[in-house]
Amino acid sequence: MTVHDWRRGVYAITDAGLLPDDATLIAACESALAGGLALLQYRDKSRDAERRHRQAAALASRCARHGVPLIINDDLALAERLRREGHGGVGVHLGQQDGSLREARRALGEAAIIGATCHARLDLAAQACEAGASYLAFGRFFTSRTKPDAPPARLELLAEAARFGLPRVAIGGIDADNVRQARRAGAELLATVQAVFGRGEPASNVQYLRRQLEDG
Ligand SMILES: Cc1ncc(COP(=O)(O)OP(=O)(O)O)c(N)n1
Ligand SMILES: Cc1ncsc1CCOP(=O)(O)O
Ligand SMILES: [Mg+2]
């Protein structure tokens, strides 16, 4: 099994609206993984804990086979549970309302990947860095169908965030037409829902995004 560098490339995020049941979710993620992801995030806002655990565990096994870390959105307890169950590559992504990064670091240990939402704010990035985040996510940079009301950010922010020395994630409306622009502005990781899972075959979508990045 090849272990990829999770610090650069395409970061795909699932969406329960686009991938409503286990079979659709798993097939789409397997396809995206085959296309060559850096990271996969499980993002499901439902309150159905049983379904969230079942789906996340299924994805964690597939991710492990591809040497790709699985990141759980919002839910430190679920990430801890999966790690206890043997899914060692599982990390967590926390937004500003999603709990303490410090606590997540304590709970998951030094090696876990812990992501932090910083919107368009370098002060939040500084705090996240101090609290032990593994990467800093900024955005939204473009019009997002998935989260249209996310606070907007300027691409120039990415260069300013280089000072933290952590991988920078660009999110929000990232697609094949703008992914190179976001990369050139400084983002190492390009996070997207729609450009991977919105239409077509996820594997081809990921490969196309990667080609744009490699050519740029
Ligand atoms: C990689 C990445 N970046 C940002 C977010 C947004 O997190 P948050 O602000 O907590 O919003 P929700 O995703 O929870 O709606 C993310 N999930 N992933
Ligand atoms: C979760 C999130 N946070 C800021 S924008 C966004 C949604 C990203 O989805 P898309 O790539 O479809 O714009
Ligand atoms: Mg959140």
From TrEMBL:
The keyword 4Fe-4S does not apply. Its EC number is 2.5.1.3. Mg(2+) binds at D74, D98. Keywords: Magnesium, Metal-binding, Thiamine biosynthesis, Transferase. This is Thiamine-phosphate synthase. Belongs to the thiamine-phosphate synthase family. It comes from the Bacteria. 2-[(2R,5Z)-2-carboxy-4-methylthiazol-5(2H)-ylidene]ethyl phosphate binds at S144, R145, T146, G173. Residues 10-196 form the Thiamine phosphate synthase/TenI domain. Condenses 4-methyl-5-(beta-hydroxyethyl)thiazole monophosphate (THZ-P) and 2-methyl-4-amino-5-hydroxymethyl pyrimidine pyrophosphate (HMP-PP) to form thiamine monophosphate (TMP). Pathway: Cofactor biosynthesis; thiamine diphosphate biosynthesis; thiamine phosphate from 4-amino-2-methyl-5-diphosphomethylpyrimidine and 4-methyl-5-(2-phosphoethyl)-thiazole: step 1/1. Binds 1 Mg(2+) ion per subunit.
